[in-house]
Amino acid sequence: MNQRSLNTMSDSTTAFLRLANQARSQIVEITPQELSRAKPLPMIIDVREADEYAQGHISGAKSLSRGILEQKGAQLIPDFSTPLVVYSSRGERGSLAAAGLLRMGYQNVRSLKGGLQNWLESGGTVETSKQYQNPRRERAWWPVRVGQI
Question: For 3-132, which CATH class?
Answer without folding.
Answer: alpha beta
